[in-house]
Amino acid sequence: MNHYIIQENISKHITLNETEFTIFLSRLKKIQIPRKNTILSQGQLCENIYFVESGALRAFYLDESGKEATIMFAVSDWWVTDMYCFINQKPAMLTIEAIENSIIYRLKKSDLDYLYAAIPQFEKFFRILMQNAYIREQLRVIQNLSLPAEARYEIFVGKYPDVAKNVKQKQIASYLGITPEFLSMIKHNKRKGLK
Amino acid sequence: MNHYIIQENISKHITLNETEFTIFLSRLKKIQIPRKNTILSQGQLCENIYFVESGALRAFYLDESGKEATIMFAVSDWWVTDMYCFINQKPAMLTIEAIENSIIYRLKKSDLDYLYAAIPQFEKFFRILMQNAYIREQLRVIQNLSLPAEARYEIFVGKYPDVAKNVKQKQIASYLGITPEFLSMIKHNKRKGLK
DNA sequence: CGTCTATTTGAATGTACTCAAAAGCGGTGG
DNA sequence: CCACCGCTTTTGAGTACATTCAAATAGACG
């Protein structure tokens, strides 16, 4: 079994011995998710957090008017869930779907709670994970408040070039909070500017 | 010495014995901040995290064009800092100013690191703090993406009624990502609607 | 009381949206 | 292998939400 990527991910922040790694891995379930399948749907109890080994997922919120807001793209080496509903074991607000054939690890809330108790270092690991997530979202709030759509698009492309290349524009637009039509216009204008 | 509020805050998530509390409190510095003073300025090294006992603070980002984006209001029982710069010990992107005379506790990064080592439960405490902050910011992203300004204003007033009452509209506008003029219009329109 | 800042109001403008239609692209079946 | 279907992207016209700028009014504070 090749647990390379997830072991590396953990080892970025904490150091586990072999026994601890074995305990951790024993709580994970490796799953293949074909493109277009969802691992969580709005309204469904959110029981798991996921680690992406390969492929790509998208988490989005669907509002009453049917408009999607993409919350995050999760590619290799990312953790993803609907955090509020996972922590509080509530019905999900978000839907998470595979946008490519993906291989992911599933960790149940009860198993995470077990890990916190059995291997205290996991508190530190998730503290750092949450900290990074908080910082990321806060930066996104700042950018949404202070930058026009075009600048936000450029930052997105700069920060996640691989996502930007492999994902539908429609989905990038919904991450930026603009319509696909307007994103199309932005890109076209920029090219004109470069002539 | 009255440490009631901060002890309550800690005790929401972890249980410390008396010795541990004493260690914790010994690392805190209680400070009075007069209205309009700043405890952190953009560009200055962010060395501390703060807990608000009383009063109110505002954290904001000032962009190149001179426009302010209010990131958060911190009132009694809240923790506040420029998290990215605190964690990485970098020059602050944010400015944090007292909008009322305030009493706060200051905790240095090095002391927090000491606490993580000396009292492992602090990992858990800050894990939960970061988790809640992440969830809050993510919800704010969703709302910024999917709701018009008027709905965001109403949610803000509903969620933080005391802040909404005591803070300048200009500052609320900069939290919502709109101009003070437009917020004024929103409020006026709503009143008309209620006649 | 006077000054400084915040809020309101209004007109002109800009950024981004809606709706509709055409063009492009990718996958699937004949 | 080509043709067709469904979905994404582009293009454009008209519209709506929010901004800018300016000026008047109201509030807060020394």
Describe this structure in words.
Two copies of one chain form a homodimer. With 195 residues, the first copy, chain A, is α+β, with helices and mostly antiparallel strands. Helices cover 51% and strands 23% of the residues of chain A. The first copy, chain A, has nine helices and eight strands. The first copy, chain A, has helices at 4-11, 18-26, 83-88, 109-118, 121-146, 149-159, 161-166, 169-176, 180-194; strands at residues 29-33, 38-40, 48-54, 56-62, 68-75, 79-80, 94-98, 102-108. In chain A, the strands form two sheets. The first copy, chain A, has a four-stranded antiparallel beta sheet. In chain A, strand 4 (56-62) and strand 5 form a beta hairpin. The longest helix of chain A has 26 residues, at 121-146. The relative contact order of chain A is 0.15. Chain A binds a DNA duplex (30 and 30 nucleotides) through residues 148-149, 168-170, 178-185, 188.
